[in-house]
Amino acid sequence: MSTNTSYNDQGGAEAAVEVGQEGTLTSSGTGAGFGLFSTDFKKNDDLKEMLESNKESLKLEAMKRIVGLIAKGKNASELFPAVVKNVANKNIELKKLVYVYLVRYAEEQQDLALLSISTFQRALKDPNQLIRASALRVLSSIRVPIIVPIMMLAIKESASDMSPYVRKTSAHAIQKLYSLDPDQREHLIEVIEKLLKDKSTLVAGSVVMAFEEVCPDRIDLIHKNYRKLCNLLVDVEEWGQVVIICMLTRYARTQFTSPWQEGVSFDENNEKAFYDSDSEEKRDRTEAKPYMMDPDHRLLLRNTKPLLQSRNTAVVMAVAQLYWHLAPTHEVSTVTKSLVRLLRSHREVQYVVLQNIATMSIQRKGMFEPYMKSFYVRSTDATHIKTLKLEILTNLANEANISTILREFQTYVKSQDKAFAAATIQAIGRCATNISEVTDTCLNGLVLLLSNRDETVVAESVVVIKKLLQTQPTQHSDIIKHMAKLFDKITVAMARASILWLIGEYCERVPKIAPDVLRKMAKSFTSEEDIVKLQIVNLAAKLYLTNSKQTKLLTQYILNLGKYDQNYDIRDRTRFIRQLIVPNEKSGALSRYARRILLAPKPAPLLQSAFKDRDRFQLGTLSHSLNLKASGYQELSDWPAVAPDQSVRNVEVIEPVHETVASVKKSKAAKSEDKFYSDSEGEQEDRKGSRNSSSSSNDSSSSSSSSSSEGSGSEESEEETSDESAKSSSQSEKSSSESEADQKKEKNKKNANSKAKSKAVDSESEEENNNGPMASSSSEEGSSASESSASDSDSGTEQKKSSSKSKPKVQERPRKEVSLLDLDDVTPSAPTTSKASVYSPSLLSDLEGLSLSSVSSPMQVNVQTFGPVKSHELLHHMSGKGLSARYHFPRQPFLYQPSMVHLQVTLTNTSDHPLEGLHVGDHSPASITLHRFNTVDRLEPQASVTVSMGIDFNDSTQAANFQLCTKEAEFSVSIQPAVGELLLPTSLTQPDFEKEQGKLQGMNETSATITMAASHCSSAVLSKRVLSMAHLGEVITGHDSIHRFAGRTVSSGALVLVTVEQREATGATITVNTDKTVMASMLLRDLKQALASA
Amino acid sequence: MIHSLFLINHSGDIFLEKHWKSVIGRSVCDYFFEAKEKAAEPEDVPPVLQTPHHYLISIYRDRLFFLSVIQTEAPPLFVIEFLHRVAEMFQDYFGECSETVIKDNVVTVYELLEEMLDNGFPLATESNILKEMIRPPTILRTMVNTLTGTSNFEERLPSGQLSTIPWRRAGVKYTNNEAYFDVIEEIDAIVDKSGTTVCAEIQGVIEACIKLSGMPDLTLSFMNPRLLDDVSFHPCVRFKRWESERVLSFIPPDGNFTLMTYHVSAQNLVAIPVYVKQSISFFESGSGGRLDLTVGPKQTMGKMVECFVITIHMPKAVLSTSLTATQGSYTYDPATKVLVWDIGRLNPQKLPNLRGSLSLQDGAPKPEDNPSLNIALKIQQLAISGLKVNRLDMYGEKYKPFKGVKYVTKAGKFQVRT
Predict the structure, then answer these.
(1) Cβ pair B22:A107 closer than 8 A
(2) Region of poorest pLDDT, from A249-258, A455-464, A1032-1041, A1043-1052
């Protein structure tokens, strides 16, 4: 790239400049470092002076030199007192360098290091989160046991810091403290438990790392966070992903039952069912199968799959091993492609990946067979890469591809890299034994190699031939003869020994040659290597037994030579053989069995992979790479026979959309403003979780919590007077009402139901993931959702009825889940109904980042993600010739143009032919500007797609008219927004609110007194109704009776303040302050409607 | 996780060490040196080693060893990947990754290493974040720093680390807004003696150089995305949209980065752009051999083949060569036994030829096999797979960026067996 090169130039020139300056600076750089130590300590003295001077630049210079020393591994510890004085310096670079020094030497100079502690303690209270974080980092890195209590305190405080970055740092500090003082374990586990609940993606990776280091056995801490971790995984930074995936692999192996048994057939049906979801009988069959994958298990597999596309090789490997250890057999091959891709990466990466593939390919040939050619060896590969590739090719060999592989091997045998050639010969040997069809071919090929010029090749061939012959000795006496002839030429000891052994073993097949070979050996015995000598003794003994006439003297001679050999092994062997074969009076019964001992039929050696036993280790681990258990290795447990209670994981599933979004939820009105980050949200989430689990788990829950769930359930369902089908917030209500229904049922039904229910939650969460707050888009979804909302409204009053109603739903869920779960496996061409939301969760979280970084506006715009979302008809399918469109306001700021109101339009094709080129045409009036959605190229029949568009209504409720066009036709549609949708929430403190309200008095104030419906009087309900009507943010007030809401108009940003003051029993005054008087009156009207008796 | 890092040069000197936990003595490297001794080439040193108390994971890159020490179980790829990131970061900061440059910038290097890992766990590895914290050295800055004594540390604290899009820094401003994409494809192939393709595949990468103000949201679409068999993305790419619509939608990092890498499957027929007619033979008796190479274009889609270089690792016995090239120049290094024929631009009318004799060491046996040829080449304005970028749309910002796409095809691991 052009810029890169220009940058290079700069870098190079810069280096030159620095070198040039060295004379004056003697700063960093080579010369300085070496110079320092040639002239030794004098220079250190001047460092001390420099540090103590008043000039910052001198101090900085000194510190740079000191860091240079540390980098070289030289000792600079005597400067400690001088350096530590600068710890509170204002200059950031100087401070950072002092930190580097401090961390390096504090352990050695503990007392002096304590001088710096107070500085860090002060910095821990700094308003700037980055300063707090860096103080904690350094404080925890100083390995001084005395400050353990201080560290503990700092960690505990930082763990509840409102900045996720500081919390992340505290997660790191946990590990540091643990390694410094393992006694703190229990306290640290508490902190870990707390941080595990954290919903920031920044924290997740670090805290799991701390978990792995401190308490990997406390699997119980994961239960409640399991689903959250699965859902957050995609957005966690890549290093954290690796750690989390590895931990979840271990977790899953303890919590789910094995998918590898009967499950196989089930899952295949499962996939078919997706493509052909109407087929009833298939569904019946699947239900009849005993194995059902736990939805959480499925969740993990589904959420890790996209990570196979990560650029980080470690992440890809982590996912691959997760699939290998957890996925049903037929799904494991999804990782193949990505693993093969990694082979293009750096050599070291290849090495590790190939090792893992080698292990995998032993068990599952089929996985890598289509990619066989990717493992062909290039002459430029490093030796260890070559051998690994060879190993894999050998593993992949089967009857079908053996000829291709052997042809490839022939090239390798000729390689200049002789070690590799030798390895190839071994590989050929293995192929020959594994595939009986080619044994003869291989053997012949190997015999040809015996005349090779290279010694190692020949030697290796001999060894392999020996092994091969053992498997079928009968036909091959001529090969043995051939080898005997070659014997003189071969000098490699191992090969010679092998030939001797072969001749000895099959001496009866070569009766003429064997004694002759022995004769030659007797001559050269003394000059042979030990290993050869041993075989000579063996050969002699065997010949003595079979052909004692010819060889008796030779044997005696050799045994005599052996008796006086320098090597004790050989002396030993000789003595043993002599006693065994030469009959004398002392040798007892044993010599009678000599023949049977020496010439016993020997089992052929098994030629098997060196990676055979590696599968005892988890793939991708260091232990697997080294093939020995590394310290700290966590065994992967076997699948439990019976799955532990699944309900332990029942927590309200978190949608990434909600995560860290600054939202003021109505239920937390009492919470202080500064905790509006995810902490408080987490608590709420917890509460919900406990609510859920307590009502669904088998053990009897405390009555208080179950009653509270009932209470909230009925309260919410009552509100839902309108029968709108799409309700994002109904999720929680639904599950709680369901659980009520369950309680009414008999106990034995409970298990099945809770299972199905958790599945329901699961599938809904996916919905949430993909569509954000919108729940209904496809017709199928819509119907089930409306059904559930119907049961919701009933549940408050007639619970029996609701239980009967929810029953068909429970049955319906599994089928739906089947289709939803396997969506990932579908080819992208298929119209993924309702999946194709333009707003992916990551985009939304991107948005959040945008709002975080734009600190310019003093009043932050809140993103209110809760609240029922009404969907409105835009185009009926009758008038739209099969195209139907519904829209709703997702209540998110519009990404591309902040002054526009964000709309999501769901286009559904109800006709029987695909619609093409869906786009927005002309619009009117001209004063309204709109942001068109991207043209939808093609919409298959029965498919639907959700697109986002933005409309700038100019803060008026005037309808926006525009054309919705397909390739063939144009339809005029019109959107008239409710006034409440033209607002964006603003967070204000109470004083600010009052101040702003003071500015908007007089004609800018509109108010009305109403009588509220009795059911709306509680403050929670009241604010919920207001917020569902208008997109406002709630202002935290001290009063129970006064509710304040603030927002801004989307287009002009004018402030809109709403106050609802409750009087007596049901009376209330609504006041709207805004300079948009028209809006004020319309808003007031709507509010009156919303709050007045229904 | 990662306990310590040692940087070791080609000759085996440790020139930099950094410890993230307590200090580990240099002697631990002795185990590594032992393994290095055993290996014939630096590339052959096993990346994962075991010592009595530690585990050593090393990478060899730019003639430097990056040796990390770990004490407990950790995924080796995690460490390897990180070490490569470190090397890339040096490259990014200093323009090259070499011993001299690291020694010259030892303070910056140390500051970088300090930020990249906390307690051995990666903290900030995004170049954008690091550059916000520690400015890369430039001529101007060095001069200013020297004169005024100011630092190369940002006074402002970085916000990138806190953002959910850590790869992009806030407040980017350019006068010329540009977005360039380079589609680079490499052909990996093995061609056997007779000229038939043993295996061939295409590995592609899209390098982006984006200099756009503000927070642009880009959408890049292809004419034929179905071609791509396997892909990997920069974290900025929204995977969901790729799954559903086969478009790349992303908020880009600022500056240069690799947007995606892809693989075009071996099932598709890969066009091999050139052919090589070769005959290398060593005489049975006497010490010599003949070499005759002719190269020509095969499937180049009408484009010019440039930077054509053939590299041959000769057998050890080859002492010297006396060859004549009709085009380009050749060199033979008798020490490393590498013959390089630099052809340059391939002329389809007059096919380049290299022929002549090889002389062998006296008494050395005839080499067992013929060396294989490694081919490097470049074809401008062509993506051999046929991949085409359709359009680039930008949302979120008002200005009109200047857009450009460049295609290049190169030979990757392209080998001709003889």
Answers:
(1) yes
(2) A1032-1041
- Dig out the tokens for A678 from the structure: 């995810």
Mean pLDDT on A867-893 = 76
Q: Are strands B402-416 and B178-191 parallel, antiparallel or unpaired?
A: parallel
User: Which residues from chain A sit within 8 angstroms of residue B101, using beta carbons?
Assistant: 11, 15
The helix/strand/coil state of A237 is coil
* Mutation site for B-interface testing, chosen from A10, A14, A357, A932 by largest number of B Cβ within 10 Å: A14
Q: How confident is the model at residue A350 (pLDDT cuts 50, 70, 90)?
A: very high
> Locate tokens 């990434």: which residue?
A656
Tell me what the mean pLDDT of segment A729-747 comes to. 44
- B109/A237 touch (CB, cutoff 8 Å), yes or no: no
Q: What is the pLDDT of residue A265?
A: 41
Q: Is B370 helix (H, G, I), strand (E, B) or coil?
A: coil
User: Which residue out of A34, A126, A348 would a mutagenesis test of the B interface target, given it has the greatest number of B Cβ atoms within 10 Å?
Assistant: A348
Mean local confidence (pLDDT), B314-331: 86
pLDDT of residue B150: 52
d(CA A643, CA A257): 5
A30: pLDDT strictly greater than 60: no
Count of positions (residues) in chain B: 418
Structure-block tokens of residue B418: 């003889």
Q: Distance (Å, rounded) from C-alpha A1063 to C-alpha B372?
A: 93
Distance CA A1040, CA A1068 (A): 13
Across the strands, what pairs with A931? Answer: A950
Q: Is the dihedral of CA A7, A13, A16, A22 positive or negative?
A: negative
Minimal CA separation from B391 to chain A, in Å = 13
The mean pLDDT of A1071-1088, rounded to a whole number, is 83
Residue A909 near residue A939, CB atoms below 8 Å: yes
Query: What pLDDT, in 10s, does the model give residues A558-601?
Result: 888 888 888 888 999 898 888 887 776 665 667 777 778 887 77
Residues of B in contact with A448 (CB under 8 A): none
Q: Kindly state whether B196 is in contact with chain A, defined as any CB-CB distance less than 8 angstroms.
A: no
Closest residue in A to B214 (Cα) is: A850
* In the predicted structure, residue A787 carries a pLDDT above the cut 70: no
- pLDDT surpasses 70 at A729: no
DSSP string of A79-127, one letter each residue: GHHHHHGGGG-S-HHHHHHHHHHHHHHTTT-HHHHHHHHHHHHHHTT-S
Higher-confidence residue of B381 and A914: namely B381
CB contact under 8 A, A625 and B76: yes
- The predicted pLDDT at position A289 comes to 52
User: What is the number of other CB atoms lying within 10 angstroms of the CB of residue A1078?
Assistant: 12
pLDDT of residue A752: 45
Distance CA A236, CA A319 (A): 14
Asked if B311 reaches chain A (Cβ–Cβ under 8 Å), the answer is no
Q: What is the DSSP string of A1011-1036?
A: EB-GGG-SHHHHHHHHHHHS--EEEP
* Model confidence band, residue A696 (pLDDT cutoffs 50, 70, 90): very low
Token pair for B206: 């899209």
Sorted by sequence, the CB contacts under 8 Å of residue A400 that are 6+ apart come out as none
Amino acid making up residue A426: Q
- Distance between CA atoms of B374 and A725, rounded to whole angstroms? 65
Of the candidates A833, A870, A876, the residue with the CA atom closest to the CA atom of residue A964 = A876
- Residue A90 CB neighbours (<10 A): 7
B329-333, strands of its sheet edge to edge: B230-233, B255-264, B197-211, B178-191, B402-416, B373-380, B305-313, B338-344, B329-333
Q: Do A172 and B243 lie within an 8 Å CB cutoff?
A: no
What are the backbone angles phi and psi of residue A1031, rounded to the nearest 5°? Answer: -85, 80
Q: Is A396 on the interface with B (CB under 8 A)?
A: no
A757-762 average pLDDT score: 44
Strand A1005-1011 with A1067-1073, pairing: antiparallel
